[in-house]
Design brief:
Blueprint (H helix, E strand, L loop, with lengths): L2 H39 L5 E9 L6 E6 H11 L6 H4 L13 H13 L8 H24 L6 H5 L2 E7 L4 H9 L5 H9 L6
Helix pairs in contact: 1-4, 1-5
């Protein structure tokens, strides 16, 4: 086998391993968040924002969300008047639902620590692995959406589904656009009120 053939075979093997890893992550993410979303969105509140949050270091994603009712309660409890709503509306960290369903995602967090261990990777491998993990979360969100986990029809059109990296990065806007109808009112609101924070 000449060197070109060996290199091609090695690249194909690496790609195959990479995609098996992505598929495995997507399956694990969907399994972890499916029951969490069922509990969250089945609560009877009117949710307008549901986000999977990751850190730039590639840690396991966690769920956060806002409903109209939760926002109204938070504004009332703040004692600062309606103007505080603008600061809270799209803030995953300030939501009462931050890390919702943590009991379902505990195993997912454990698997993220060992598959592979990020501390053992070189700089190039680390960057590729973090990008792979981000892609897997987006794929999982899309799969869950296709299954109807975020609702259908008008209910889905009123809910912004996001996959966001924290601290904010410009690619957050691209992911949100790919996961939602960009003509929907909720997407237009998010774009106007929160997208600038992602840049």
């Amino acid at each position: 086998m000449n060197s070109c053939v060996r290199e091609a075979a090695g690249a194909a093997s690496a790609d195959s391993t990479r995609w098996r890893h992505v598929d495995g992550l997507v399956t694990s993410i969907c399994k972890a968040f499916r029951p969490a979303l069922l509990d969250l969105l089945g609560s009877g509140e009117n949710f307008y924002y549901c986000t999977f949050v990751m850190t730039a270091e590639g840690h396991a994603p966690f769920l956060s969300a806002w409903s109209e009712e939760a926002l109204a309660r938070a504004v009332d409890e703040s004692g600062e008047g309606p103007e505080v709503a603008a600061d809270l509306k799209w803030s995953y960290a300030d939501s009462p639902y931050v890390d919702f369903g943590g009991e379902y995602t505990e195993k997912l967090r454990a698997s993220y620590l060992v598959s592979p261990n990020l501390q053992e990777l070189g700089a190039d491998e680390l960057e590729k692995e973090i990008e792979l993990r981000m892609d897997a979360v987006e794929q999982a969100a899309r799969q869950l959406d296709e299954e109807g986990a975020f609702g259908a029809g008008q209910r889905r059109s009123r809910l912004l589904v996001a996959v966001e990296i924290m601290p904010p990065v410009p690619s957050n806007v691209e992911r949100v656009a790919r996961l939602n109808d960009t003509n929907s009112e909720v997407f237009k609101q998010w774009l106007e009120e929160a997208a600038e924070q992602q840049r």
